[in-house]
Design goal:
The complex is a heterodimer of chains A (89) and B (299). Chain A has a single domain, classed as Sandwich (ATP Synthase, domain 1), CATH 2.60.15.10. Chain A is built from no helices and ten strands. Chain A has strands at 5-11, 14-21, 23-28, 31-36, 42-46, 49-54, 60-65, 69-74, 77-82, 85-87. In chain A, the strands form two sheets. Chain A has a five-stranded mixed beta sheet, with no helix packed on it. In chain A, β1 and β2 (14-21) form a beta hairpin. Chain B has 299 residues and is α/β, with parallel strands linked by helices. Chain B has one domain (26-253): ATP synthase, F1 complex, gamma subunit (Pyruvate Kinase, Chain: A, domain 1), CATH 3.40.1380.10. Chain B has helices at 2-60, 92-109, 121-129, 147-162, 218-298; strands spanning 76-82, 113-119, 136-138, 172-180, 186-194, 213-215. In chain B, α1 packs antiparallel against α5 (218-298) and α4 (147-162) crosses α5 (218-298). Chain B starts with a helix and ends with a helix. Classes of the chains: A mainly beta (89), B alpha/beta (299). The A-B interface holds A 8, 10-15, 28-30, 33, 40-45, 69-70, 72, 74-75, 79, 81, 83-84 and B 39, 42-43, 45-46, 49-50, 52-53, 56-57, 147, 209-216, 220-221, 224-225, 228, 231-232, 235.
Chain lengths: 89, 299
């Protein structure tokens, strides 16, 4: 599978989740954004809301953040940096 | 003679009790170092991500942000001092305070006024004793620093920095705290927090930052990023200081235990000598007494 993105979800005091995913949906200050492999490099501000990660087999991971943070995407590596977050499912 | 022996035995007992306490503290610290180091390691991915993002933004924008703007003739500086809440950790707190004093002297020589922000009861006690003023104090929980405290400190000093000098703001902010070098070595060090020096990470020198798309504009991203960065730097400093505190305490308590052992050994020897001297004296008294009696009966 070539079109997967490496996802790292980190909070200030620990790493919350990391793995490979086919799509990630997050809420930025401009609106919701869906990220797939091959997306152009970007830096965006995350606002409080949920972060939904869809893995290659269709399974989903949802994390909730109350403080927001930012995300950076480059070379099919997505880093979601939030002050606090917890996995919902 | 009997009284001498009693005094030695008392001293041995006292040294043994001390040894028990210091040994316990040593073991507690040893186990907490592990946890403190794990916390440092756990915060590393976040630190790395934040640093990378800040340097990426800095590369693609001419950074002119209130938080990075350098004031030409600084007149006032703030120093945040990170010490421990408790003593019994060797020179842990005093070396940091000494470092802060040196920094103060250097800044004063440059004609800057210095404001203090204190973290840890030991710094507060020291300032009270020397009757020096501080702006704000944070005590409790230096051995297990929380994000909330870091956030509070970061918010306070960022606000202070943004204020103009005329309004009582400062031009420079320094953090002084212990750095965990190894289990045996903890060094006090000083870092300038503000204005920020956006440093490229040396490890990824060959990796070129891709042309990022910013959402929203670069300035807004920087607005949101820099406070996060500052908060992270403060939190990191606190975690480092906590790890160093436990290591310093373990080291101090280990040498205290060793000293107590040496004392016990010496006093045991002295006590044995005193006991033996007492016995010898008693024997010679009996022999002398018997001798005297036999001479009397012979006559």
């Amino acid at each position: 599978m070539a079109n997967l993105i490496q996802v790292n979800l980190v909070a200030a005091d620990r790493e919350i989740w990391s793995g490979e995913a086919s799509m990630v949906i997050a809420k930025t200050s401009e609106g919701e954004i869906g990220l797939l492999a091959g997306h152009e490099p970007m830096l965006a501000i995350l606002i409080p809301g949920s972060i939904r990660v869809t893995m290659a087999d269709g399974e989903k991971v949802v994390a909730e953040t109350e403080a927001g943070g930012f995300l950076s995407m480059e070379h099919d590596t997505l880093t979601l940096v939030v002050r606090d977050a917890h996995l919902v499912s | 003679m009997g009284s001498q022996l009693r005094v030695y035995r008392q001293k041995i007992r006292s040294a043994k009790t001390t040894k028990k306490i210091t040994r316990a503290m040593e073991l507690i610290s040893a186990s907490r170092i592990q946890k403190a180091q794990q916390r440092v390691t756990a915060s590393n991915p976040y630190t790395r991500a934040v640093n990378k993002a800040v340097s990426a933004v800095a590369t693609y924008s001419d950074v002119d942000h209130p938080l990075t703007r350098k004031i030409e003739n600084p007149t006032r500086a703030a120093i945040v001092i990170f010490t421990a809440d408790r003593g019994l950790a060797g020179a842990f707190s005093s070396s940091v305070l000494k470092e802060a004093d040196q920094l103060t002297k250097r800044l004063n020589d440059q004609g800057q006024e210095v404001l203090y922000y204190l973290v840890g009861r030991k710094a507060v006690a020291n300032f009270k004793f020397r009757q020096r003023a501080s702006q704000r104090e944070w005590t409790g929980g230096t051995d297990v620093p929380t994000l909330e405290t870091a956030r509070e400190i970061a918010a306070e000093i960022t606000e202070l920095f943004i204020k103009t000098t005329e309004d009582g703001g400062v031009d420079r902010i320094y953090l002084v705290g212990n750095q965990f070098v190894s289990m045996m070595v903890q060094e006090p060090n000083t870092t300038r927090l503000l204005p920020l020096e956006v440093v490229e990470q040396e490890a990824e020198a060959d990796e070129v930052h891709p042309l990022y798309e910013f959402e929203p504009e670069v300035d807004k991203v920087l607005d949101a990023l820099l406070p996060v960065y500052i908060e992270n730097r403060v939190y990191n400093k606190m975690l480092q200081s906590a790890a160093a505190e436990h290591a310093a305490r373990q080291k101090a308590m280990k040498s205290a235990t060793d000293n107590a052992e040496k004392l016990i050994l010496n006093y045991t020897r002295l006590a044995n000598q005193a006991r033996q001297a007492e016995i010898t004296q008693q024997i010679s008294e009996i022999v002398g007494g018997a001798d005297a009696l036999s001479t009397v009966s012979e006559d």
